[in-house]
Amino acid sequence: MVLDPASTTAEEGVREIALSHAEARISGELFKNHLVTLGAEFRREDREEGTDKKMDFDNVSVYLQNEFMPLNSLYFVAGVRYDDNSMYGDQLAPRVSVIYDISDNLRLKGSYGQRFRAPSIAELYVESWKRRGKEIYQPNPDLDPEKSASHEAGIEGEYGILKSSLTYFRNELEDMIDAVYVGSTGSGQNKKDYYYM
User: Fold this and answer.
1) How many CA atoms lie within 13 A of 117 on its CB side?
2) DSSP 8-state secondary structure symbol assigned to residue 119
3) Which run of H or E residues covers position 153?
4) What is d(CA 196, CA 179) in angstroms, rounded to the nearest whole number?
């Protein structure tokens, strides 16, 4: 990787950026004790560079969630999200959470969920400047989608004005998308920090 301000194209070389986003959601009661939510989301990003290079990227998502109480002391939420990404294919991400009332003042809680996030066009292909050009973020066309899974279990309760909880959680992350500092050039007012996705 070359740390050379003269080689920077950054956002200045972008002729046109278009971002389209639409989302719809509907919720309703089903079979008396089920609250069902159905939703869809569409996101599209188009870029045209100064070199007449065109890039586009879209993601279509559909999700379904059901909240219900099979027992008076048990609250259950189950959901699933489906993503169809133009660059990375499709991905299914489930989510489940449970709350069980041991008594009026004591309950058990647990949850499990998965998440999928595809890198944006900017993270893949566009060098960008931040803080008035003092931070330069270099793209990485080899990025993979970020995938994560979270687990949580705990107990919580109240006694008078006292509230307490004990929770165990674990997050598993694969291919995290984050900028890594790689070096600097210049000093003082002319210092530039470089990051790599």
Assistant:
1) 13
2) P
3) strand 146-159
4) 5
CB 17 within 8 A of CB 46: yes
Cα angle for residues 183, 185, 191 (degrees, 5° grid): 110
Cα-Cα-Cα-Cα torsion 164, 170, 175, 178, nearest 10 degrees, comes to 20
pTM of full prediction above 0.70: yes
CA dihedral 84, 86, 89, 93 (to 10 degrees): -30
Give the model confidence (pLDDT) of 24-65 as tens digits. 999 999 888 899 999 999 999 887 766 666 778 889 999 999
Q: How many CB atoms lie within 10 A of CB 81?
A: 20
Q: How does DSSP assign 14-57, residue by residue?
A: EEEEEEEEEEEEEEEEETTTEEEEEEEEEEEEEEEETTS-EEEE
CA angle 38, 44, 49 (to 5 degrees): 170
CA angle 105, 108, 113 (to 5 degrees): 140
pLDDT per position as a tens digit, 115-162: 988 888 878 887 888 877 788 888 888 889 999 999 999 999 998 899
- d(C-alpha 119, C-alpha 141), whole Å: 9
